[in-house]
Amino acid sequence: MGKVYRGHGRRDRNHNEITALFIAMGCTVLDLGDVGGGCPDLMIGIVGFNVLVEVKAGEKSTYTPAQHRFNAEWRGQRVTVRSSADAVNLVASVRKAARGGTLAS
Questions:
Q1: What own/partner pairs with CB < 8 Å and gap ≥ 24 does 8-11 have?
Q2: Architecture of 4-98 per CATH?
Q3: β pairing state of 28-31 and 42-46
Q4: pTM of the entire structure?
Q5: Cβ atoms 40, 52 nearer than 8 A
Q6: What is the pLDDT of residues 3-50, one digit of tens each?
């Protein structure tokens, strides 16, 4: 499918790069940047799994108070991706889980 559905909020500087990489790896991407309330930036679909992804630009990038609250309250899968390597590792982990492994957080 390889589509991205976009909103219009502020994005981290690596947001487009990470989004394009997920698409190149065969994921579907839903941009959630305009949802607010600390909701992560993306929802990606990978081999039947949906994962919420917060994109951060590097190790020094911090969470907002709303993101901290969301992270504490969310009961589903949520991952922070800070680099292309993180994105590749996430997709590999989900694909492994789909083959009967475990999904790393």
A1: 8/33, 8/34, 9/33, 9/34, 9/36, 11/41, 11/55
A2: 3-Layer(aba) Sandwich (3.40)
A3: antiparallel
A4: 0.83
A5: yes
A6: 444 445 667 788 999 999 999 999 999 999 888 889 999 999 999 999
pLDDT score at 105: 53
Burial of 52 (0-12, 13-18, 19+ CB in 10 A): buried
C-alpha span between 42 and 11 (Å, rounded)? 11
Residue 100 CB-half CA count within 13 A: 0
Give the residue extent of every domain in the chain: 4-98
Nearest to 19 by CA among 36, 52, 42: 42
List, in sequence order, every residue forming a beta bridge with 31; answer none if it has no partner. 42
- Is the separation of the CB atoms in 47 and 98 below 8 Å? yes
Burial class from Cβ neighbours inside 10 Å (0-12, 13-18, 19+) for residue 86 reads middle
Which two structure tokens, joined as six digits, stand for 33? 């940047």
